[in-house]
């Protein structure tokens, strides 16, 4: 009897210590970060193992940013989310899964790396596209994902809007401008990756409004001499944010690892991995290393120029917002 | 009374009470409770809210596209599915088994794979799309593309419901008709059609129902432009992305009711054609 008890205790001890030694994290992310996190997860797991002796298995889930946020709301137990825009994490916070001031918890608006929106054109730039103005020309076909289903596409839309608002100085003109761009859109894919494929593989369209990192990826992975990046005169600072999902990590007991995971994004190594994958590093020193890759641009920001994501979402992308107006006539 | 007892004794599966109970429980768990949840979510909306959601221009257009193209696709499948079924049952040719197996591919293939494959094929730089482009025919990213995806996924339904009926239909019946002096046309309309029509209607209904709910294969080839090539299931997904669950379920409820009405009508048609010809 005694022996049995000892054996059981030993097993229990072994089980709990094994649990302490092996944890798993789920990072729920959006479409164009697949390559970035594949790399980053490896680096983090190695570092965490070296520092704490704990093995972390990191699982990553990718998809449209809004859909990913909804999965988390509906119960996908993500330890951390790394999404395309703050609004999607706000939506999760609204359901009480993390505190509403989540964006103040990490430096730089909780966005360890940034990106921007650029124009990808076919080699030689046959349609002579130089700036946003060319996208409203009737002879130009524009590829962008649907802002309703793709977080990235909302940055695209706002970049164009911001340019027009700045240039023409009126809301009505900006609306007209954006409407004319979407008149030239023959395909609205549901996610950024889908649009990349439509433009790159299917050969549809003359210009692809794209995240900078996705444009670099298209050039490097899919066709070195087939595409060129055109830098518009005005674009937007895309800040994809990251956050720990409090409810989940407290329940699973993974808070320490989850926080270390996100903090590692801000470290020199983390920043370097982001730079390698064509995300603009926040760290000035690391950014210097990549400065010849990323052109300097006049960048609008969501907070200064659009009053934050909640306001932008409500005005432009909610039901019966400006985007719906564009398509309702 | 005597006959009934007799039938009961001959039944292989015992316990009518138990089997019916299990059937209803299973049906409730798998079908009725989820559907109930759908209606419950919609009940959050007031009737006027519900009405304005489902009669908005965009929702109406999406429903029109989904139901309209599904009916056309099912009709195309009715014709070509019948043709394929007939060829497979009546004739021997090399590779017949392979063709027979290929019919089932749309059943088993993940729909997204089907969508991506069809899009690759029909895009302007694809094999088929490239041939059609000089004639000004665009398939990928137009409603025509949606139609082709819906035809693709619906094909097996007509073939597979028709096949067993055709196999039961001996050639002797046609020969008998011929010896009694029937023309070919009379043989088809008076002898063959009455037997196969009910199963054709069933295949049509199944192909149609599948097409209405299809999402995966369509969104890749559709172009997804609001009011032009946006299917109702995509609009439901869009509403969900806006975190508007009730709006999404409202459209879903309309689709469900409309499908039910149409399937019910097809069912009546099927019965009518069966009783009219005495092959109930």
Automatic annotation (TrEMBL), chain A:
* Pfam hit, one: SBP_bac_11
Q: Might you report a single GO cellular component term?
A: periplasmic space
- What this protein is called in its record is ABC transporter permease
PANTHER family cross-referenced by the UniProt entry: SULFATE-BINDING PROTEIN
What family does the Swiss-Prot or TrEMBL record give for this protein? Belongs to the prokaryotic sulfate-binding protein family.
Q: Which UniProt keywords apply?
A: Periplasm, Signal, Transport
Provide a Gene Ontology MF annotation, just one: sulfur compound binding
